[in-house]
Batch of 2 targets.
Target 1
Amino acid sequence: MKINLKWIIKQLPIKLLIALLVTVIWGSFQGVINGAIFGKFPTLVHASQPELNRFLIYATILFVLVYTGFFLEHIIINYTRRRLKIALKKQMMNISFQHQEKVSKGLNRISNDANKIDDSYFQNIINVFVSGTEALISTVYVLNVNLVMGLIAILFSALSMIPALFGKQRLAALGKKWSKSNNKTLEVAEDWLSGRAEIIQYNAKKIFFKKLVSKITNTESLALKQENLNWVILYCNLLATVASFIIPWGIGFIFIQNQMFNVTISVLLTLTLTANNVVQSTRNLMQYWTEMLGSKDIRKLPEKLKEAELVQNSDPKPNLDIKNLGLKYSNYDIFKNINLHIPYGQKILLTGESGVGKSSLLNIIANNIHPSEGQVTYDDRQITPTDVIYIRQDPWLFSGSVRENLTLGKDISDDKLLAALKQVNLLTELGDNILDREISAQVDTLSGGQKQRLSIARALLHQRPIILMDEITSSIDDKNADIIRDLIYNLPNTIIEVAHHTNKQLLKKYNFEVLLLRNKQLTKER
Ligand SMILES: Nc1ncnc2c1ncn2[C@@H]1O[C@H](COP(=O)(O)OP(=O)(O)OP(=O)(O)O)[C@@H](O)[C@H]1O
């Protein structure tokens, strides 16, 4: 999807659009007021005192009115930008979430990209509208003051558009390059920070830092090129503006000397001050237009995906069916033609060598990745994310209290929460006021095993018909692992577990079926 004018209009309520239109027109009279007032000066040379007083009052009212409009225009513009930025960031975060984008990419979207879109698109598109209105109002005024002289002044004002026309493509290309380079920089910066332990251990600081600095330098050089090109275009604009002043003056003096087309010094003074605004607004318009084009690439977002419909199961004990399932990565089959009927309550252990696709299969069932072919149906319909609870090796705990992490916004009593914590042996370990204990998603305040057990307590509280477990006890000691397994296996749910180390007695006790993924196929182990 694209962030464009249509998108902007969709985000703004009609009342705000009207307020924007009215205040922009009102504020645009700013461009003609100087010419209108100062142009009267030559006629006031022989005016009486009361006439001069009347002129001063008239000028004061006019100035205050126009500047009030100018002030309101900018308040409304700020309010409009705020709305657009909120809508943009909401959309970006939703899209990143749906497309399972890398964290660094998603964060880059709402920080760098969103700010850049605001700077180079939202502000500029509003500025184009403001400058266009100012140019239009000034033009009408100029032509009204003196048609011939006004036309000459406007014609020469068009000169200032030429440099922007030549620079726009180059600017757009630079904008694209900058965005690419900035993404690369963030990727390398993430390596630098997340891979800190490895970098120190393998004495690779120098090479990684060099790589990071080179990416930062490249991104900044591209930003500099963009800014410099903007200034070159602006400089050429200014030079063209000089010509658009001087030439009409020369023509105007000839008209005055020869008493042609009613041109007077008063007319020339008014036109110089007002036609200047036609030039200025037109030049601004082109400048904003060019900057706006530079944001073309960054305004392209991935398409919004249709959310899977979450359906209530008609059958309280639904069966799971895997039909003709296949997964390919870069045209290489990880597995294919997998067929499996899993009656409700069946317990399955999925085994196989490293890299055969066990986690991928669990992720397909959990709806986290899409298969290349085939499908997983549940209760005779497409499986949805809320049918399953996927307990993984590295669970994510949210910044907030233990209570918030367990309830995830649902209404669950403290007694139930404490009971679940007791089941995973956390009640005594985490001290008093356990439910109010704050957890940080950024800093490790719990051990790996504690995090894992907390995520299992969460899973126990949010019952789902299917439980998927991927190496869930890898960071838990054997004693706790057995307690937790016994606890989960005892549930009536369908369970599919991937684990390298298991407890054979427990597998037997709960009548587990062991499936082996090998040579791209799934077979039953006896
Ligand atoms: N996004 C991806 N792009 C390309 N290949 C991928 C991607 N994700 C996984 N793979 C490949 O798919 C194969 C299956 O990976 P998966 O993690 O499912 O294996 P696994 O059996 O769970 O391995 P392990 O037991 O080591 O965890 C691997 O060969 C892996 O390299």
Note: Residues 329, 334, 352, 354-360 surround adenosine-5'-triphosphate (CB under 6 Å).
Target 2
Amino acid sequence: MNAATPQTHPEAQAPAEDEEELRWLADGRRIEAIEAIGISAMARRLPMLVVRAFRLGWRVDRSSVVLLLVCQVVSAVLGATGLFATTGTIAALFGPEAVGDKLTRAAPSILVIAAAAGARALLGIMIQTITVHLSPRISREAEAAVLRATVAAELTAYDHAGYNDELDAADRGAEVCVDIVGEAQNLIAAVASLLGAAGVLTVLHPALLPLLVLAALPQGIASVHAARVQFLANRAAIGDRRVLANLRWYIHLKRNADQVRSDTMGGFLLDKYEQVGRRLDASSRKAAMQSARVSVVGAAATGLGTALVWTAMLWLVTSGRMSLPHGGAAVFALAAVGTSLRGIVGYGADLFRTGMYLDDWSTFLDTAGGHRLRRGTAVPQAPRRIEVENLRYAYPSSERTALDGVSLHVERGEILALVGENGSGKTTLAKLLAGLYLPAGGSARWDGRETRDLDPHALWQQVAVVPQDYARWPLTCRENITLGQPAPDGDAAVMRAAEASGAAEVVAKLRRGLSTLLAVEWMGGEELSGGQWQRLAIARAFHREAGLLVLDEPTAALDPRAEHRIFQNLRAVARERAVVLVTHRLTNVAVADRIVVLEDGKVLQEGTFADLVADESGRFRELWDLQNERTGVPAQRNRPPDTTGTTGTTGTTGTTEETRP
Ligand SMILES: Nc1ncnc2c1ncn2[C@@H]1O[C@H](COP(=O)(O)OP(=O)(O)OP(=O)(O)O)[C@@H](O)[C@H]1O
């Protein structure tokens, strides 16, 4: 094997029998609802969807949309004019005159045909140019609409099976918004040409048009069926496509790149990728066969229908029911009507399929994937007291209860620490206190009002969170702290927050200070270390004028000096805020006024640091002893480390009152 070729791992080819497969969960009810939408129901929805797509174009560029429609109508009128002129030309050719006279008689019609064809060609170029100009802007607007709907969804949406599918489908719908404008245009053009040609055909003989329509009908029905089969197959494959996209992302990701190499995982991951790819291939092959079968039946029926129309026309001419010149013109008109009908069938089927994608987009915009924020409108001030009572919360995709019967409170000026083993529910509880999740049972109140009754955006104005996995925005250092919401005194506030979090030292080393772009090098930015990013994440929380500060493992990546400074400053930070601190480093929770120990989503203990350390049979004491065992700190120690800064121990960082936010 080539040294550069990633090795294939046998485990990837032969997974254990009880091993769970990588699968994207979908909301079965939504898929069933989509499958239940019949062709006639979709056909009824189609005009509304086309109008919505045109409205999008209208919002982006009114004059271009109007111009497009005008061009299409004029083009159709020119097409019909050309066809009428064809009748004149043929009549002249079949007339009794001499050749020269025939040409003289036919000349005006020929001129009209040539002028109409030339003008239509010019209009075609115009339509193409406008469409190229309009399309990307419509796409962007459609994507922006999805982004707006995403931001308007409850956070819990991401934990629902199927939400990501809806989002993906909406994205696909946004992509095809452009197509629907083009397809609707083409359909309008085909209908307009049909009307023109049908007028001519009806004048020549009234029986021909209904016959032709009958002949085209089976093809139309088959095309729409085939489009529906393809759409449903695509819709069902969204999950697998997402798995592939996610695998690609995990393999590409810079954060994982070193481990993919050092753990020689390349081959193993690629095998997983291929497995899912094969599953996808199988389902798309099945759909292709199914739609091919439907199309073959449609084409055969159309062939028969066309033969019938031509036979009928021959019979009309040979039986003297139609004159020869009219028969000649009818040949052209039949060809034109046939082209228009095929266009209507083809574009109609395209429009139908695109309409189904657009339906996903449109539904997502209306409901934010079924999770639109629907809370109260009361605007909260900075909270004085936040409390939860008999709180229960279960993640939608989980059978277990993450929080069960939790009651506690935190007040302004107070630091509440949440401790407990992994998975005990600390982060979930912090999210409920911050109104990011709503209780499934019991209550979560800010100053006596249920969080679900408060305006969510106004509530989050009062929340500052340093999550475990903080965002590393590809923005400038300043924007990474202000998050686009600068304080009235601008950089002075930014620097106060930066001093208090230790980010000021990071800023000082940046090539342009606060104005430095923080992004990976290939995006033109300067990359920071994990701890440096965490200092910025804390600075952004300190910078927010929020009544509730949630710190979830805020110092995990910090060096001892930086960590010391944060906890030195926390008391001053808490003066104007309620602070919830989640951490496993029990030395740090000594700064808290009260500590709540969680286990399996329930409150196990509550008390001050001194109380909990003194309780020798309690869980806190057990964890405290375990932590200290390795550091040699006497297990009996029950006096909290000094974190008040009142003993003059401000640490080697020299943090002063002025540097506090
Ligand atoms: N998005 C999610 N979907 C489903 N279950 C989840 C989700 N997030 C957390 N859980 C589950 O909820 C429980 C509580 O998780 P939580 O993150 O609150 O624990 P924690 O105490 O903060 O853990 P840690 O100390 O590891 O950070 C766990 O059993 C976890 O598996």
Note: The first strand starts at residue 385 and ends at 393.
